[in-house]
Structure to design on (590 residues):
């Protein structure tokens, strides 16, 4: 990189740091504000006295959540969903990516399967037929409806498949000569080589299952089957009236327990915040690896 | 390679994924029949009465359909433009930054909102834009009366677009940054020796260097013209802003699952799917033809 030392250039550098720093701050301030609200007194929060620091610092909201069995129930459902959902996704992604990474010469009909896969990613029956199908499978109020989701994570499959395709052919040939079968080759040779890209797609799965609320809303008819995001959605977001006036909406937002809601929102953010450092380390690398094509 | 006997194992490997796909993606395709029926859930797809294109005809007589098509395209196109320009500018600025550690630090922070759900972010946004919230607090400094942002149909699309750009710009920056690192550093050296200033280098080396990426992304974004973002709008809207915020997906949800007009909602959903699929196919074809882009 060329380094210039003119005054104008230096002034630009300073402005640049300030601007980019400010933009970055803009991305975390809303999250910080939520934390601050959750630690403030409710009266101060709802009358708009809280700024960047808690007013009347207390853990009351968090203590209240401790005794909230509905919240914990939803939290537990979300944990189950993440564990089951991402493990299943992991296995399915591997089992699809490996055969599909073969040439049509080594695996006849490979292209047919590939087109079906891409077609289902690009075209679907829409909400109502999908809902009717899941319903007729008897999966309403069943956690498996959430775990199995709407479809295979096709994007992740393509990512891993592209990665497999770029591995040197000699690796697999050597394994085959040594008597390794397809399953053995996949698990003992391909998987260890693909750790960064597999970590990436797994983290995507985890984030997807943790964040998804709509399946929970539509496929679970009773609140005690809701995953956490659906629970929070029902609590915080829904402004549920067909004929509400602006004044009524304002009243309602004042009546709602802002600190408690903020605390619930913040707790729901924690898992993402916790895995985020790992995620960040892996995903750029992983995406780049999978998207490079021969 | 002696992999002749492998094929049956390959089929076995595909089995779980394709069973799953069949159940949740392919079987619902047959449910498209609902769009051509006076669907009665009690009778099911096989016994409901066929009414041909009645649902589609009725759909176009509704005032709603004009509104939701306009809103969907308006919001989606604004998002496409915003999600292109803001990350591009951000990546260019970040590229000018010489402090490597600070650069990494900023990137880490701006990627974060992408990984939070719209449920969480809507909860936060509703707080921030509330009557007594910080935005109105800031406005009051300038003697502006508090605004009920989420009750204002005229402001709603802009809140939707800007908050989406806010959430995604960091993540969208990744692609541009990758393209920027692909530019040959010796081009900068040569330009500097020729006496090019920073601005001139930006205009003559950097911008041409990422132009292909910009064009490719614009072409691919064509497929998203009918995707205005269900999760976000669903979590932020209310009846007061239906006139400017209701989109095809939210309308299908309300009409189909809340008002139980299955046939009508499926017809609208099908129309959307068909148009989107066509647009995506065209965009992929163009991207393949002009930029040799392939997804696999």
């Amino acid at each position: 990189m060329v380094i210039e030392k003119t005054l104008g250039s230096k002034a630009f550098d300073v402005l640049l740091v300030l601007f980019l720093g400010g933009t970055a701050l803009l991305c975390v301030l809303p999250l910080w504000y939520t934390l601050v609200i959750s630690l403030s007194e409710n009266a101060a929060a709802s009358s708009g006295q809280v700024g960047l620091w808690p007013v009347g610092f207390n853990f009351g909201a968090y203590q209240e959540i401790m005794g909230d069995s509905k919240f914990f129930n939803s939290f537990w459902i979300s944990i189950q969903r993440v564990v089951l959902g991402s493990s299943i996704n992991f296995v399915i992604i591997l089992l699809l990516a490996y055969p599909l990474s073969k040439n049509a010469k080594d695996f006849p009909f490979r292209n047919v399967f590939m087109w079906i896969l891409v077609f289902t990613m690009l075209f679907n029956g829409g909400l109502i037929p999908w809902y009717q199908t899941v319903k007729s499978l008897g999966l309403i109020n069943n956690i498996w409806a959430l775990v199995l989701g709407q479809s295979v994570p096709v994007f992740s499959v393509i990512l891993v498949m592209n990665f497999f395709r770029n591995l040197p052919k000699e690796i697999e040939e050597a394994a085959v000569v040594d008597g390794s079968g397809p399953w053995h080759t996949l698990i003992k040779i391909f998987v260890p080589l693909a750790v960064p890209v597999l970590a990436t797609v797994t983290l995507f799965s985890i984030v997807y299952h943790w964040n998804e609320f709509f399946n929970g809303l539509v496929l679970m008819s009773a609140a005690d089957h809701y995953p956490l995001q659906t629970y929070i959605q029902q609590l915080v977001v829904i402004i549920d009236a067909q004929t509400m006036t602006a004044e009524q909406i304002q009243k309602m937002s004042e009546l709602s327990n802002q600190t408690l809601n903020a605390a619930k929102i913040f707790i729901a953010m924690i898992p993402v915040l916790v895995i985020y450092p790992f995620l960040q380390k892996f995903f750029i690398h992983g995406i780049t690896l999978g998207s490079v094509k021969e | 390679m002696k992999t002749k006997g492998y094929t049956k194992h390959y089929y076995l490997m595909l089995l779980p994924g394709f069973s799953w796909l069949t159940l949740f993606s392919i079987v619902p395709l047959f449910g498209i029949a609902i769009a051509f029926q006076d669907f009665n859930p009690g009778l099911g797809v096989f016994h409901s009465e066929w009414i041909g294109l009645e649902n589609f005809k009725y759909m176009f007589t509704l005032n709603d359909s004009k509104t939701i098509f306009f809103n969907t395209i308006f919001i989606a196109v604004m998002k496409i433009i915003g999600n292109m320009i803001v990350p591009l500018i951000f990546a260019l600025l970040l590229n000018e930054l010489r402090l490597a550690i600070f650069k990494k630090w900023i990137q880490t922070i701006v990627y974060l909102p992408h990984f939070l759900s719209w449920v969480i972010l809507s909860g936060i946004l509703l707080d921030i834009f509330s009557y007594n919230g910080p935005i109105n607090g800031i406005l009051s400094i300038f003697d502006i009366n508090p605004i009920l942002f989420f009750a204002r149909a005229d402001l709603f699309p802009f809140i939707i677009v800007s908050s989406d750009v806010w959430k995604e710009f960091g993540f969208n920056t990744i692609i541009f940054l990758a393209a920027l690192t692909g530019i040959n550093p010796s081009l900068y050296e040569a330009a500097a020796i020729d006496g090019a200033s920073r601005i001139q280098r930006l205009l003559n080396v950097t911008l041409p260097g990422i132009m292909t990426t910009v064009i490719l992304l614009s072409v691919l974004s064509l497929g998203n013209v009918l995707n205005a973002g269900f999760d976000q709008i669903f979590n932020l809207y209310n009846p007061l802003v239906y006139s400017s915020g209701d989109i095809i997906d939210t309308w299908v949800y309300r009409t189909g699952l809340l008002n139980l007009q299955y046939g009508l909602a499926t017809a609208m959903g099908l129309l959307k799917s068909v148009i989107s699929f066509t647009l995506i196919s065209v965009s992929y074809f163009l991207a393949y033809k002009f930029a040799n882009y392939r997804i696999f």
Chain A has a mean pLDDT of 85. The CA atoms of residues 173 and 180 of chain A lie 9 Å apart. Chain A touches chain B through 114 residues (CB under 8 Å).
